[in-house]
């Protein structure tokens, strides 16, 4: 018992020694705007990893270091998959992947976003299955918070992309079950809520009937918008208007996932549309994370298919998407030091 206690004490002090303060300290949300520890308006700009259960090797210190020092990013998003050998079937592997990213982010002094990465698998039509899904999310976030509660580096994304057939009322039921558990463990952690139709943004029903309640439980929340440079320009304009409408009501929006090509693959890179949306996000001080730092053979991947996480900072391994993002991110002041 004494040996175990000593190991815990040593691990605790190593955690303190290795921890580096993130650029803006502990985050909060005021009238929908992300703020730093000093109350200043801030932005997070970073990168999402691919599904944890399939490209686990990218959940590594090398990948997190690349986000910080090669791409000038101040946040890494850990897309912890739920189905198909993800958390619902192999919780220990999923938690291990989340911890690897969180620890690396803390050591590098950037933020980490732990995402319960369900992609329209929960259909909200079976009450027993929905309850099981909700309880699994509670268990997942409880495990994460028991390890990282109070960390100034941490943010949580509660539901990546709800199925289009899930009504907003069902999403609210889920959030009203999960949020109180999170707030009991960490009253101050910023949480991000997935929106209807696979997180295409805070629709009118969300804006008119947001998740609300006591300040303890429901403050420090944002709503998700996922953006891809689709060929349907009307859809992009609608998404921009959603953001403006939400902001006018004091609701914050985090673009936790965006891509520089159409969501329907195969598709070519669309730099002009991407640059336009970067401009829009920066004009409105939105935070955002690019999909994805991986060698997956798809247009959005930042690394070429034959390269490994250890090669993520090599120029020869940059995809066209990687070059586009790196050149843009290097122009931003993201508070990065120590590279």
Automatic annotation (TrEMBL):
InterPro entries membership: GH (IPR017853), Glyco_hydro_5 (IPR001547)
Glycoside hydrolase family domain: residues covered: 37-296
Organism domain of life: Eukaryota
Gene Ontology molecular function: any one: hydrolase activity, hydrolyzing O-glycosyl compounds
GO aspect biological process, one term: polysaccharide catabolic process
Ranges in coiled-coil conformation: none
Keyword entries, A-Z: Glycosidase, Hydrolase, Membrane, Transmembrane, Transmembrane helix
Membrane spanning stretches: 7-24
PANTHER family: ENDO-BETA-1,4-GLUCANASE A, GLYCOSIDE HYDROLASE FAMILY 5 DOMAIN-CONTAINING PROTEIN
Family assignment from sequence similarity: Belongs to the glycosyl hydrolase 5 (cellulase A) family.
Protein name in the entry: Glycoside hydrolase family 5 domain-containing protein
